[in-house]
Amino acid sequence: MRYFVLALVLCGSVDARADAAGAGIPQFIEDTPTVDPHDTGSERYITLGVLTTAVDNTFGLRAQVDALSLGGFSLGAAGTLFGRGVEDLPDLPMFKASAVGYLAYTAPLLANIKLRAQVGYGGMYSIEASDAATAAVTSGAVALTSSSKAYETSTYRIVEGSLLVEARANHDWAFSFGPIVQRTVADAPDTTVMFFVGLAARW
Questions:
Q1: CA torsion, points 18, 20, 26, 32, in degrees to nearest 10?
Q2: 192-201 confidence digits (pLDDT tens)
Q3: Among 177, 187, 179, 174, which residue's Cα sits nearest to residue 160?
């Protein structure tokens, strides 16, 4: 008898739910959250792009990699290569390479826009025409050669700061652009202002 009563109760519950659904009454059924199989949960990005300076017709390449990421903060390393060919004096090239370790913080700005502030510290290696060779070429006396007297090599410690806008195309890709400032740590410090445009991929 108990089993017969239990069967009637269960049938009545099923019939009531079916009637409610047919009448358009909303049913409160808990949905199982969906999980993106491609979402690794990582906020680390690899960024590659090009840069230019406001003066001196300088162009270059830059790459940076987030090694660690937690709560909007990221630790990583960046490398920059850039050079210059002076239009009026094509015999006066310049080449610089720098590498820094950085700390970055990324904050949401709009729906798909984020702002990334970054500071770094590292070193720079440069090859530039010597003052004597530059004066000689400028005056038209001689042509600059690749001899050791024509060029000077230097190494510097540098500090770096940047403020980049990241426009997310989707969860894994973003366009990145903004200013980057490098300043040498020396008796006569030199500041270089660059503008960067690149593509960031989450990894």
A1: -20
A2: 999 999 999 9
A3: 179
